[in-house]
């Protein structure tokens, strides 16, 4: 799972839909790999607009990265060369960083979702479905 | 031929050998690719790369087309063997083991659009006691609606067992707030007939592409895409447009004459 995805995935339990603690999930015992991907500045700029920056900071901290700027860079035009270094950094962080193993925990119901072979398991036990 | 939906639950039907058989069949690859292209055509997205959800992504046959078209995607599927086959094929999208009847676990406004190819009819099944298809359909559509950006579109090719299933699916989608309906391709052909559910979450600036189809829902006024305008223009329109373009670029072009774009007599 790409790091990007952590900025969107939330607890699947219906009772957690209305809870602010069901996103972002908390990441534990995580293994990461860097995997090269084609650089697409338009896509990164497009996704940057909808990123929840506070959630990104939280998850990055779970994974041991505390070097991100505290505010989201805004109005990043992907056609300007001056923005390329920033977009490349984000590309490497969001698309090339993959979580291969680990746990994701809901801050509301404490349900643990396991990631194995890069695939998060979101099947719910009958009592939560 | 019996329907897979009547044989066993999806996660059991699509075991290791069935997933392999399904994914390596060139016939299946061809059909799934064709239907994915059709779904994208109906979605009528602007050109830049989109973030798309693939509902019931299986081993990624539909997702691979999304990648080919320059999009980024995340897929959900209930069958571990299908996802494992997808991993082996090194598909680009993120894969989630998930039952869509329990909801789409993504925060509001995550996706630009969503597709589903040959999957949502499974939601009409009640394989075990205590399973309520209506409730699952509603949970699916409600959470899908939320996970799409406002005006985001969903196109799903599906294989309804009967009209009642189509009604139940459409009904649940409407309750969740989607507008749209069902598009039927090749209605005359028993074998090639295909159902596409085409839905919009709220208002969209670009309508779905309803070229050459009839829909069982009132059609809203539609704006043609650039591509459609090009496809519909006459030879004369084409030459006029090219001339304008050349003029804009500072080129000298011949004056329009009444012979423009007319077939000329062949002289010897
Ligand atoms: C015919 S396959 C299509 C896969 C892929 N979209 C393609 O075009 O090749 C249907 C898929 O729907 C999945 N499916 C069925 N019920 C599901 C559910 N409740 N949740 C998630 N996926 C489901 C099955 O596991 C299967 O992989």
Automatic annotation (TrEMBL), chain A:
GO terms for molecular function: protein heterodimerization activity; protein methyltransferase activity; rRNA (guanine) methyltransferase activity; tRNA (guanine(10)-N2)-methyltransferase activity. GO terms for cellular component: cytoplasm; eRF1 methyltransferase complex; nucleus; tRNA (m2G10) methyltransferase complex. Its main location: cytoplasm. SUPFAM superfamilies: Trm112p-like. One of its GO terms (biological process) is tRNA methylation. Keywords: Cytoplasm, Nucleus. It is found in: Cytoplasm; Nucleus. InterPro entries: Trm112 (IPR039127), Trm112-like (IPR005651). PANTHER family: MULTIFUNCTIONAL METHYLTRANSFERASE SUBUNIT TRM112-LIKE PROTEIN, UPF0315 PROTEIN-RELATED. Belongs to the TRM112 family. This is Multifunctional methyltransferase subunit trm112. It comes from Babjeviella inositovora NRRL Y-12698.
Automatic annotation (TrEMBL), chain B:
It comes from the Eukaryota. It holds the Pfam family WBS_methylT. Residues 209-265 form the 18S rRNA (guanine(1575)-N(7))-methyltransferase Bud23 C-terminal domain. The keyword Transcription does not apply. The keyword Cytoplasm applies. Residues 53-155 form the Methyltransferase type domain. Keywords: Cytoplasm, Methyltransferase, Nucleus, S-adenosyl-L-methionine, Transferase. It is found in: Cytoplasm; Nucleus. Coiled coil: none annotated. GO terms for cellular component: cytoplasm; nucleolus; tRNA methyltransferase complex. GO terms for molecular function: rRNA (guanine) methyltransferase activity. Signal peptide: none annotated. GO terms for biological process: endonucleolytic cleavage in ITS1 to separate SSU-rRNA from 5.8S rRNA and LSU-rRNA from tricistronic rRNA transcript (SSU-rRNA, 5.8S rRNA, LSU-rRNA); ribosomal small subunit export from nucleus; rRNA (guanine-N7)-methylation. Its main location: cytoplasm. InterPro entries: Bud23-like, Bud23_C, Methyltransf_11, SAM-dependent_MTases_sf. Belongs to the class I-like SAM-binding methyltransferase superfamily. BUD23/WBSCR22 family. This is 18S rRNA (guanine(1575)-N(7))-methyltransferase Bud23 C-terminal domain-containing protein.
